[in-house]
Amino acid sequence: MAVKPDTESRGQWGSSLGFIMAAAGSAVGLGNIWRFPYITGENGGGAFVFVYILCVILIGIPLLFNELAIGRLTGKNPIGAMKIASKNKLWMIPGIMSVVICFMVLTYYSVIAGWTVGYIITELINIPVDFEVFIRTPEYIIPLTFFFMVITILVILGGVSGGIEKASKLLMPVLFILIILIAGRSVTLEGASEGIKYYLQPDFSKIDGGVILAALGQAFFSMSVGWGLMVTYGSYLPKSSNLVSSGLWIGAIDSFVALLGGLMIFPAVFALGLKPDEGPSLVFKILPEVFNQIPGGSIVGAAFFLLLMVAALTSTISMLEVPVGYLIDEKKVSRKKAAWGVGIAAMLISIPAILSSIDGNVFNTVTMKIGSISKTGWFDIMDWTFGTLAVTVLCLLFAIFSGWSFKTSELVDEIAIGSPSFKKKLFFGLSAGNIWAFFIRYVCPIVIGLVLLNLFGVFGAPETGG
């Protein structure tokens, strides 16, 4: 399949570094900084970290290669890519799902990002905030959410190299600096050693099926695979780029940030005698208390929530770019009209997610039941439906497509263009490309299937996902 991307109208990454920073920024999100620590806390600390790293290497990276290869091979957004790659119109479904998922997740993810903006302000001026009261005050949350969305739109307006790449080259180093500084402050607190020990010292007796499935789920959701994000970002890559080294860097950066996220949180939590398995409330309820009890806490707290905002922004940029890229490719809409149109629509649809925190209204009480799964509130329903279930199904469809419907050898050839060693025989007459094809065809679908079953509680308590 020979496809020549229209780089003049679509845009293209200006450098490999710019692409890696943008793609890593897409993968690095709130899930790394708030979800990874509390999932680790709930699953026994260091043993979970060990299993998680294995899952990233064996499952996350192969799936990442898959989406990047599809994107660069076709030079299109997910819908356009599936249209080119298959004559069977049914395979348009994953492409359509990608665009819908990115847009719908953007509508509530931006609300969480708005919370981080509010907490930056309250930490700086050192005003204690009751999280439950804060999120139930729409006159604060709506403008904060809209403000954050406007920032995202302005980045997208700059295009691929002039907007996304430039922003990522600035934001990702800022993120690294902030997370290292905060982790450094956390590990030097008196009593922090117990937290470090809990976090990094594996207790392999705690590894069971539940821990493995939790690690698989976290690796899966934190790598930005199954969204179509990496198909879109891969479509902006020149043929000369090395997908193998870029993919490995993306996976390494994503995991590095997740691991440092634990070093920010666990030492401080243990130093102050708090519980390490408090769930998502750890970030907005417990950590502000931690910051208040250490010297310079208001500055550290503001820096932490700035870090969260940056992580959220690098993710929302990619979420917005997917539907924008679709409108540019398939509908020939200008980038300006597409960015503002999709962005304003996302702002309006974010309002139900904001109102769902307020007791008594329809968005707070609406309930969805699927088998043993019951979700109440617009926010939770959207997160489970689009940010968890749909992403898992989509990733399964991409793996099945590449492994069984499309010529897997074409994707191996595509990956090998910038990395000839990918097809070089290593041992037993097998190349890295052969091993990757085996994983995409057999291992990944089986593992994703297990994650999908775990979402419905087949193996115990349902996995909460994203």
From TrEMBL:
Its family remark reads:
Belongs to the sodium:neurotransmitter symporter (SNF) (TC 2.A.22) family.
Enumerate the CDD domains for this protein. SLC6sbd_Tyt1-Like (cd10336)
Q: Which organism is it from?
A: Belliella baltica (strain DSM 15883 / CIP 108006 / LMG 21964 / BA134)
Question: What InterPro entries is this protein classified in?
Answer: Na/ntran_symport, SNS_sf, YocR/YhdH-like
Specify the domain of life of the species encoding this protein. Answer: Bacteria
Subcellular localization is given as:
Membrane
List the GO terms this entry assigns under cellular component, sorted alphabetically.
membrane
- Protein name, please? Transporter
Among its keywords, does the record have Membrane?
yes
Spell out the NCBIfam families in the cross-references: Na_transp (NF037979)
